[in-house]
Structure formats: C-alpha cells, structure tokens
C-alpha cells in the first residue's frame, strides 16, 4: 500500500502512522535521505532537526556535513520564569521532544511547586513515549529519553534514587518539627509526590536490571557488572520500602501536632530519623564503594539498637498518653531503621564479591 502521493517535485503528501502508545510518525523521502546521508548504520546521521514555526509549519533540516548529530545527547533548558501557564509549559516540553532533544531540563530560581511537578510527571507519562522524569531537585526537573540504553547510566540514576530518599527523610523531620498547618500540608504533598516518583523509578531500575540479566552485554552498557545485578536489586527494593515507610509516617501524623506534653515523643522520632538518615547515607556510600569495614561497623550497631529502641518504645508507651497514630509512627520509625541496617548486609556481600572476582 502506498503511503505517499507525489504532487510535484517539491511537495509530497505523507500518511501518518501510529507507533507504540500513540506516537505519530511519518517517513522521510528515500532520495532526500540518501542525498543527506540520513539513516541508521555506521557513518550515517541517525537524526534530523525539526523547526516549529509560529504558523504551525514544521521544517525538517538535514544535518550539516560536519555536524555530529546523535553522538552527543542534546539538552533543552526551560526556565520557569518564562512560562506563562501549564499549557505553555506543555507546548515547550512537547516542542523540545519533537525537536529530538534527549534531555529536557526545567529550571527555576525558586522552589518548583508541587502542582508543576505533578503536571510534568503526568505529561511525561502520557505524551513523551520513551522519556522519564529521571531527577528532581528543589529547583530543577530533568526529563530524559531512555529509549536507547546508551543514554541510561545506571549508577548515576541509582545515585538520584538514593538522593530522593535522603530528601524525603529530611522533609519528614521538617514535617514533624513544624507547627504551621500550611507548611505541613506543603511538605506532606511533596513527600507523597516523591513516593509516587520513587515507585516509578524503582520499576525503571528494575527494567534495566532485567535487561542485564537477559543480556550480559546490556549490564556493561548501562554501567554495572553482571555479578552486581542481584545486590542492586536487593538495595533498590529496600530503598523503595524505606520511601513507603516515610510516606506512611507522614500520613499517620498528618493531623497530629505535638504539644509540650508530647515533646519526648517528638524528640524520639526526630532523633531516630536524623540517625537513620546519617546511616542511610553512610551505608549507600559503603555499598557503592564496596567498603566492607564501614558496612560491618555500622551493622554491628544493629543488635544493640534493637534492644535499646524496644526499651525506649515501651517506656514511651507507659509514661505517655499516646494516640494510636503516634504509636504507629513510633513503630514505623523503628521499622525504617531496621530496613536501613539491612543495606549493610548487601554492602558487605557486594564487597566480598568484589574480592572474589579479583581472586578468580
């Protein structure tokens, strides 16, 4: 079946085709592609430039002879201060996507609102086939094309996954400390949003690891060794559970404000979270650097911590008139610390495998 109609030498009508979940594509004229060396394969240009005009017309530009299109990932920057509305933001993001940018970075001089983050997340999921929100900070959102594994750096994304959990623990401490209802609501929504993103990123990391299991060359492509896959899987699963517990604690305490009579409970929660955050950072560092001594040292604390935390928890229950939500929060914080200490086991195991691989 013909998919084009030649009307004259300079005008060709093409039928659109639907690929994947709704991506619209058209084919390029064969003679034009051959003339400008556009195509797949060694020595060919595997992408072209699209320019969207105000009139709605799109101009397709062939690469210049000395231009290395596709070798270095391209980046589009969108400044929030220049965005008029969510619709305008969507137009800019989609335009960058259509122009072939592999990375779209949204930046702001102030903290990006949770509404904007949710909007970008929904747009990316619904429209940008093959793209994911890979990283978020207070003032930036990074959307990355991941259709090609060469563009996916597993260790870097794993580090971003870790950083998101660190931010969630920090936010939870601020949430518990704050006495202003509006501040607590904003922080709660941010924790909720991060938990959703963390869950999506978990499956993205999982997909990359499965790719490495099915094809060992894929593991090397994304930046890890085949023998590391199971250890990475274990850690990202535990990290995901930590994120879920953080959200559960925030949910339990959403409507709870600690008065002076509950200062002991508040202090206990904050102290446990601060130590937990510190141990999480140390253990993730030990895991990534295969540091056996650091991981072993931290894990040696676990037995004494379990006994000490249980005794403190019992005393708090006895001397304080606690609500069910507060008891639940104290239990969840103990569970969170337990999951964090589990990372020590994976770090110890990974460091041993490193030693075994050197000896073989």
Written overview of the protein:
The structure is a single chain. It is built from eleven helices and ten strands. The protein has helices at residues 30-35, 86-98, 114-126, 154-177, 181-214, 216-222, 229-252, 263-289, 292-299, 302-319, 324-359; strands spanning 4-8, 11-14, 17-19, 23-25, 49-52, 58-61, 75-79, 103-107, 131-136, 140-145. The strands form four sheets. It has a four-stranded mixed beta sheet with strand order 7-8-10-9. Strands 1-2 form a two-stranded antiparallel ribbon. A two-stranded antiparallel sheet has the order 3-4. A hairpin with a 3-residue loop joins strand 3 (17-19) and strand 4 (23-25). The longest helix has 36 residues, at 324-359. Mean pLDDT is 82; it is low at 1-7 and 65-72.
Tell me roughly what share of residues is in helical segments. Answer: 55-70%
Radius of gyration: 25 Å
> What is the count of distinct domains?
2
What is the average of the pLDDT values?
A: 82
Distance between the termini: 58 Å
Query: What is the CATH T-level topology of the largest domain?
Result: Methane Monooxygenase Hydroxylase, Chain G, domain 1
């Amino acid at each position: 079946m013909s998919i084009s109609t030649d009307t004259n030498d300079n005008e060709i009508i093409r039928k659109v085709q639907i690929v994947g979940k709704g991506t619209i594509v058209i084919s390029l004229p064969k003679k034009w592609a051959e003339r400008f060396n556009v195509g797949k394969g060694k020595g060919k240009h595997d992408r072209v430039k699209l320019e969207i005009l105000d009139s709605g017309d799109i101009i397709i530009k062939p690469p210049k002879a000395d231009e290395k299109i596709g070798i270095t990932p391209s980046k589009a920057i969108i400044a929030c201060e220049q965005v008029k509305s969510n619709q305008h933001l969507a137009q800019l993001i989609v335009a960058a996507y259509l122009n072939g940018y592999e990375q779209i970075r949204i930046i702001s001089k102030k903290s990006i609102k949770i509404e904007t983050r949710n909007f970008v997340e929904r747009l990316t999921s619904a429209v940008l086939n093959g793209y994911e929100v890979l990283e978020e900070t207070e003032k930036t959102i990074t959307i990355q094309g991941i259709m090609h594994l060469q563009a996916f750096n597993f260790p870097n994304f794993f580090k971003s996954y870790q950083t998101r959990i660190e931010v969630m623990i920090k936010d939870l401490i601020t949430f518990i400390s704050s006495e202003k209802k509006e501040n607590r609501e904003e922080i709660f929504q941010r924790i909720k949003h991060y938990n959703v993103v963390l869950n999506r990123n978990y499956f993205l990391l999982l997909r990359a690891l499965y790719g490495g299991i099915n094809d060992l060359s894929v593991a090397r492509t994304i930046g890890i060794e085949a023998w590391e896959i199971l250890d990475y899987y274990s850690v990202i699963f535990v990290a995901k559970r930590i994120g879920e517990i953080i959200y559960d604690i925030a949910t339990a305490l959403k409507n709870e404000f600690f008065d002076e009579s509950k200062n002991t409970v508040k202090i206990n929660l904050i102290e446990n979270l601060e130590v937990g955050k510190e141990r999480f950072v140390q253990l993730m560092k030990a895991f990534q650097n295969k540091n056996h001594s650091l991981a072993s040292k931290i894990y040696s604390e676990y037995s004494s911590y379990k006994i000490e935390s249980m005794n403190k928890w019992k005393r708090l229950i006895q001397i304080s008139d606690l609500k069910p939500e507060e008891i639940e929060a104290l239990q969840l914080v103990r569970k969170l610390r337990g999951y964090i200490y589990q990372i020590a086991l994976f770090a110890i195991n990974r460091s041993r495998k490193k030693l075994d691989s050197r000896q073989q």
